[in-house]
Amino acid sequence: QLQLVESGGGLVQPGGSLRLSCAASRFTLAYYAIGWFRQAPGKEREGVSCISSSGGSINYADSAKGRFTISRDNAKNTVYLRMNSLKPEDTAVYYCAAGTDSSCDFMDYWGKGTLVTVSS
Asked: What is the DSSP code string of 35-81?
């Protein structure tokens, strides 16, 4: 079974940083666009960032621009989301997903998520 596994979440103070990782099991991430999504308590899931399979196309939600950086290391079969200047409103479960749609609008595989809590 194809799996995506997120890691790197945790509790961080406002203004702090975290790096999330998305690793694949039983398939090669290099062939897929990878998106990071998040869902805060009581809210709908929203897209955070998307990187194309080649890494040549990257998009961010307005809330992430200037603070988050998505990157991929195809040799390690891993995609990262570096999050700086974290705010309490960034608190959410973060999911990574893989798909053949380069805009990350339609994703085929999802991880189970990692919780990020931004609080003092």
From this structure: EEEEE-TTS--EEEEEE-TTS--EEE-TTTTTTEEEEEETTTTEEEE
The contacts found for 97-100 with CB under 8 angstroms, 24 or more apart, are 97/4, 97/34, 97/35, 97/37, 98/4, 98/24, 98/27, 98/29, 98/32, 98/33, 98/34, 98/35, 99/32, 99/33, 99/35, 100/31, 100/32, 100/33
Q: What is the mean pLDDT of the chain?
A: 95
CB-CB neighbours of 73 under 10 Å? 13
User: How many C-beta neighbours within 10 Å does residue 58 have?
Assistant: 13
pLDDT digits (tens, 9 = 90+) for 40-60: 999 999 999 999 998 899 999
Residue for token pair 């709908």: 44
* pLDDT for residue 111 is more than 90: yes
